[in-house]
């Protein structure tokens, strides 16, 4: 019982401290980057919840010059939309210098960013991409990783990834130390900041087709590792549309019945997918693909 009381008291104290911290944080959030402490300003970091507890993540006081840099970096970001031509770039990478369009050639591409090298979730993600090598190859896809780390960091980290994830990372990681690609694709997140309080990339994914058109964009938060099987599934779907005039219904997986594109006439559909099923005039399906 004594132990229980002690632990109850401890929890109550922690909770009080926690409440006042949370209140303080709310005040700080309201004042955001305008708050002044001494000669610096407070960069807003949102509360994070984990196992029912709310706490502040990496809130720190940084000089005005830094908050001005955060704002100006974010303001420089461009944004890529579906249907855009993937912005081309030339950069150093762990596989040598890369010019994106030239490197992709007739392949599809998956350009994906992560917050930082030597972090746990990113380590598992990069390992997973390496493990899926044959899946990318069979779909004619080249994966390309990116973070604002240097080539030297990438090269050192790859050794850890290979060791811990039982894989061989042999796709390029772009040297992002000048942040130019992050700015070009709009990968920087105002809430994920590095040790200097400057924005980091989040988990962005751009699927690029052989004509260099961006066909899929996805953004996950830093704390959630991506499901690369889902990205492969989307590529399967995109390729069904590009090569077979088919779309894919909810929860579709390769082999399941697909949907005939509305732009395909019944006459053409009969030639392409003999015996297709008409559920409604606008809902026609087939498994012959
Ligand atoms: C990670 O890769 O483990 C990670 C990075 C930033 C925030 C949280 C997790």
TrEMBL record:
Name a single GO biological process: response to oxidative stress
Q: Which UniProt keywords apply?
A: Antioxidant, Oxidoreductase, Peroxidase, Redox-active center
User: Where do the Thioredoxin domain residues begin and end?
Assistant: 80-240
Top-tier EC class: oxidoreductase
This entry's Enzyme Commission designation comes to 1.11.1.24
The cross-references to InterPro entries, in alphabetical order and at most eight, read: AhpC/TSA, Peroxiredoxin, Peroxiredoxin_C, PRX_1cys, Thioredoxin-like_sf, Thioredoxin_domain
Catalysed transformations (reactions): a hydroperoxide + [protein]-dithiol = [protein]-disulfide + an alcohol + H2O; a hydroperoxide + [thioredoxin]-dithiol = an alcohol + [thioredoxin]-disulfide + H2O
One of this protein's Pfam families, by short name? AhpC-TSA
A single GO CC term for this protein reads: cytosol
Q: Which GO terms describe its molecular function?
A: thioredoxin peroxidase activity
Q: Does Repeat show up as a keyword for this record?
A: no
Protein family membership: Belongs to the peroxiredoxin family. AhpC/Prx1 subfamily. Belongs to the peroxiredoxin family. Prx6 subfamily.
Q: What does this protein do?
A: Thiol-specific peroxidase that catalyzes the reduction of hydrogen peroxide and organic hydroperoxides to water and alcohols, respectively. Plays a role in cell protection against oxidative stress by detoxifying peroxides.
PANTHER family to which the protein is assigned, alphabetical: ALKYL HYDROPEROXIDE REDUCTASE C, THIOREDOXIN PEROXIDASE
User: Protein name, please?
Assistant: 1-Cys peroxiredoxin
Q: What is the lineage of its organism?
A: Eukaryota, Metazoa, Ecdysozoa, Arthropoda, Crustacea
